[in-house]
Structures
1.
Amino acid sequence: MLSRVRVWLNRTYAENVFFMDQLRRNPSDRAVEIHATHGDADSPVLAAADTAELEPEGLSPAAYVEFALDQCQRRGIDVFVPRLHQAAIVAHRADFTAIGTALLAPPPEAVAVFHDKVIAYEAVQAVGVPVPPWWRVRTADELVAAVEELEADGHKACFKPASGAGGVGFRVVTRAPFSLAHLNGFPSPYVPLDMVVEALEQADEQVDWLVMPRLEQPEVSVDTLTGTDNRVRLAIGRTKNGRRRGFTLDERWLEPARLIAEGFGLHYLSNIQFRMLGDRPVLMDVNTRPAGGLHQLSLCGVNVPWAAVQLALGEDTGAIEPPFLGQDYTVVSGPRQLRPVSVQHQRELPEPLPAVPAPAAAEPVVVEAAAQVLPL
């Protein structure tokens, strides 16, 4: 009888409750014990885990590595899926290997390339992947010059931090003066250029932004699963066009994603995002971690989180082809349970431990889930 697999997810996104669900419902019928840590006691990933701890605040990356090594050793972690401080953790892969823990993350060289979007754009452009025009700006004058050049070519300018994840810090520049229109409805990503310039001129420190044209939909996020031999085992694109979402195996998106994943050694799970510049796809971003929407690939009949854990354990999955592509769908909110209290929530588990569902709890929290959209 195969032993259970212990998997740890550190300070991760709420959507990864679905990642955890898929690990438990793995097609190998293998018992999985999930450990989770987070800085927020009311994170739903803590409630979904078999064991959970609050993470200490204020740790440096080096101190966090020591915390992580201690967690892995005390908990007997087989596979660690790091999100927080990923770069520092993968730099100590040998230390984790020595205590029997496999890191489900790329090597440090790959993480370093894609931590900085400017370095990433330069690197992928060198291997033939198209990227949008971009400017790295740190001052108000540099921002204005970049915006004017983009506008002269007929583009809307936007900016985002040169390093960071998700849409944090993304803004679209407008020439419209600030007015009540900016205060009506929901908050908008549009910001008047004169207000941004004023804020930069009054700031005590420089920013580090990437300025580029606002790219158009569809947005295609290609989820890739790559072995340590740099061969892609799976690549599926998730399309997003407004509310409507779907899947694609179109090589316009998959071929450059494979080129990046294999060429830069993006081992295990990565997410490579494209959008349209005119009539051609260009790279938007590369994430060296599982995407929050990875679970949506279950609509194509594949369990990608479990396949990644198998690879991390040294069990080659071979090439994985989805048996079908799911119908178009949208994302809606649904409740997930929280632990009854915000502190002292650790649930100790006896040995031996089978895979078990999360404990019942008192309060729900809203997490996004996929729902089918009927064809038009």
2.
Amino acid sequence: MKILYAIQGTGNGHVSRAREIVPLLQQHGEVDLLISGTQVDVKLAQEIKYNFHGFSFIFGKKGGVDHYKTWKNMNLFQFKKDMDSIPLRDYNLILNDFEPISAWACRMQGIESVSLSHQASFKSKNVPRPKTIDWGKLILSRYAPTTHHIGFHFDRYDDFIYTPVIRSEIRQLNKSNLGHYTVYLPAIDDKDLVNVLKEIPQVRWEVFSKHTKTAYQDANVFVEPINNEKFNQSMASCEGLFTGGGFEGPAEALHLGKKLLVAPMRFQYEQQCNAFALKQFGLPVIWGSDKNWIPKLKEFVNHPQEHVFNFPDETAEIIAHTVNTFAR
């Protein structure tokens, strides 16, 4: 059996999940990997057969998407050329983690594909969403269209939705609490973050930033470039995680039993929905309308959180079910 697994390369969550899924897929057949996008810091161990420019949302430094750089980064001619270059009919199963090139290529050729992603969960009307009009709804539904859907979310909102894929390296971490707070906000400049976090001087903040190449310390704030191993260790031993409105990072923190505060990116509908879902569980959110972060940061640091999330390790069963159900 030949399997094509296409992965979105914007952000680290998709590739982090793929690191867990690829070895399981390889137990069922020969797996070719396709990645498109330009904003990933985490790497796969396996060879990438197709590496495309794709269509990435470019993170800004002020808490949202940089629309100008995102538009400038688009190349529709190359997108169509890459679509035509994939030998889709060579594969018995095509899996898609929110990757647009293979998804649209399948759609144009009438070939079935299966979304295996957090975004697939939004096909259910039961998934929490804020009551807002947002052009991001259209992007979420049209960005990477597939014929079948298997989704992941914080809760089982529907019969095709499972709880998050927690990487083995996270499940195997030795948890502790050294009292510091881990921070990952890729759409905010670390220097701006430092200025805010210094206003809460009683704790140590460990910031991991896309926007610096060297580590430095400013008062009680310690800044590091993105490093998967160091980040995992920091999160395993922290009191809490302060991060964006992504999916995998908050899910891993909740699995580890850590306190959680999220600040979803502005102009990013999926992150707004994730934050809204977390709010339903009683977890704190800093919204784009919150101009002064200090009160919520103080509350986050000074008050305990009581939550218990059960994210069972069922990835192998999900992959086996997917292969047995959809392979042709």
3.
Amino acid sequence: MTHAANEGPARSDDRSDEGRRTGGRRAAGRRAAGRRRPRRRGLRNVLIGCAVLALAAGGTAWWMYEDLDGNITSVDLDEALGDDRPTKEPGTTEALNILVLGSDSRAGDNAELDGAKVGGARSDTALVVHVAQGRSEAVAVSIPRDTLVDRPACVRADGTEVGPAKRVMFNSVYAQAGSACTLKTVETMSGVRIDHLMEIDFAGFTSLVDELGGVTVTVDEPIRNAKGGLTLDPGQHRLDGTESLEFVRTRYGYKDGSDLGRIGLQQQFLVALIGEVKRQDLLGDPLKTYKIADSLTGALTTDSELASLTSLAEFGQSLQGIDPAAMDTVMLPVKYDPADPNRVVPAQPLADKVWDALRNDRPIPEAARKSPAAG
């Protein structure tokens, strides 16, 4: 995985041409130029990029528009979160922050994933994508799912309330209270105003890779994921959708078996997936583009402002100035929790330096890129 960003997300009924043009430009950032960047990238960023690419082409025919437009599920952030939220810093109102979630819900088409052995739903992957004023550069901050956080009081989608809680796993917030509460938790822990929400489930991910005909990755260290069943020797491998999902979810059979190591695989996969999309030139194959767009929109949940094909296509056009291969990606600095070595907590003051950079639309300091717990 971007648009309008003044003092918060624009309302879905404000669809003037100027509003859409302004909102559509909220998807670029300035983290790439003049700085050394890791080659790894965040998994869900590529899903946004591919979705937008496909959607922009898929909207060329009205019948396609009608079909795809009805696929998208939306969340009204204004209604769910109210007015008690962070505000933008002076001079940063055109910058944009998007919370990108990858969910492992076992509803619908996801029921058979992992052999239907996992119940409930969690936010398996979470990124805060910051798009700067210039709309030409961006940075994505990965939040490890095992991070202990304080969850604020929230209202679920069904209107029921969930009380605040301290020291809960970050990915449990989604399971307990949904994506809007996850967004509120991020705002509470960071002080960063989140303008948009984009969530994709695993079924959409596997469909995307299969429609592409697979993605090629290069493995430097052996993967022996006994839990997921994926076994890869060092070298080059062409992965289908199911194998790709296992690859980005591999944890116990890779390096130290931690979630932090898995983030590295997810970031590595992004580069390969972007390269595959560029190689195939999807805009030159309308039928394939439509199939990919149909898979993705059916698996996509956004905030209400983005919940139409037109808005997503305009969002995609606004990303044209960003080179995905140069997109800056970092992990939120964390350290192992003294009371529970299986969990991590934000490492201070490094974590605050990351959030401060996003709030003020500035580059993330080099010192804040070195997480004490690196996986």
4.
Amino acid sequence: MNVRRRRISGIAVTAATALGLGTLSACSSDSSAAGNTDKFDVVASFYPMEYLAEQIGGDHVNVTTLTEPGQEPHDLELSAKQTAQMGEADAVLYLKSLQPAVDEAIAQSDVKTKIDAATLTKLEDHGNVEHDHGGEKHAEEEHSEGGEHALDPHVWLDPVKYAEIAQGVAESFEKADPDHADDYRKNAEALAKKLGGLDTAFKDGLAKTDTKVFFTNHAAFGYLAERYGLTQEAINGLDPESEPSPARIKELQEEAKADGVTTVFYETLVSDKTAKTLAKDAGLKTDVLDPLEGITGKSKGEDYVGVMEANLKALETALGAK
């Protein structure tokens, strides 16, 4: 698409070859790197952005991802080659503040269309309540500027907000690649229907439950909880790797009794050790609630919608849905 790429230098080709493109082309529609195809080349930072690009772009896009399946996106580090190669794409789609290494690389990149999903909906602060328990506040501040509370980046777990982002992505694609604008618009409408159906399923499925409280490994589900009238209590706050204090564990054990909590949820990409310890000590069950940061062989679904449907079933069981 990009005229600049017709004259791609031998150095760039060599760099791309040296990469092996195991990371960047794992989910491409062909074997080329971002920036070397005749399609609209999009680099997505991690799975939820990749899914949007593929759903909206359809046959007109070549989507590559910076985060390999099974890799914890918060921990992603980019090589200089990946950063250089990103500049050959037509567009990059990312969520600012989730992956600092990606934010830095995009700031330095001269890619023409930079789409920050965080600007396409309203981010909120869900982390401060959990972090203030037991002196764990520091974990949240690692992700914020100037020591202020960080905004929760896990916005894709709310189908309504995810649909808002999808609309903004579609508009960016239409502007950057006007030849295929009609198709992008139609694809976005089809995706909006799919996400609308998911929203209805969650609303109906969680309307009447024995309890509204659920425990998670880290605070990824604040938007989902807010959307459907639930209360998320996270063991570790926004940072999946931080360790909870003994006071926080004790508090959760007491709350489990008070609120009729049956289950401690953990996720596929992060250690389940803390969740299982808490569950054992408090006599609770464990189950998976997937924050959809990546699809792997362990995922309970093949794509975003499939995994979200599995999440709904897990919540219905844990909360005692009627």
